[in-house]
Amino acid sequence: MNRLLPALLALALSPAVMAHGAHEHGVADLEVAVDGSQLAIALKTPLDNLVGFEHEPRTAAQKKALADAETRLRDFPALFVLPAAAGCALTDVSVESPWPQGDHGHAHDHGHKHDDHGHDHGAHSDMHVEYVLECANPAALNELQSRLGEAFPRMERVRVQSATPRGQGSATLTRTRNKLPL
């Protein structure tokens, strides 16, 4: 993963990404990088796309919705399809939630006052997810299919930036146009 981090950072800080990186309901941003046998995917989405709200969960139903979204985001095969011939296996997944609900990530209350945590609870809230995969046959890694719109119906579009051995690219995926050439 250490080799992919510079590629993802360069991609994330590129002018094209910065121009469309604004918080927009119904839209998520996806960065895809292939480096040797490693595939890294970073997803940033407004919390509203996942659960229908962006404030700190107040009710049991809202807490459950957020916990369920965190669980679904960890289920890579339910969200993305890669060519079987590439032989990719998930080696790491990281979900960063403004209000973690599961046993993953850090606890929200860890020894300091809630007011000092650094979240602006009245502002927009995003979920960040990173996936790292190791591929046995990266030459066969020619396409990524997104199922994000099926898993999260409020997510209408996914803006994608990619960096692969074949070059850099950008695309917008929807439920019906959900395949990204790599």
Automatic annotation (TrEMBL):
Stretches with biased composition (Polar residues): 161-175
Protein name per Swiss-Prot or TrEMBL: DUF2796 domain-containing protein
InterPro entries in alphabetical order: ZrgA-like
Record organism: Pseudothauera lacus
Bias kind Basic and acidic residues: ranges: 103-123
Domain of life according to the entry: Bacteria
The keyword DNA repair appears for this protein: no
UniProt keyword Signal, yes or no: yes
Record keywords, A-Z: Signal
Signal peptide: 1-19
Location of the region described as Disordered in the Swiss-Prot/TrEMBL record: 99-123, 159-182
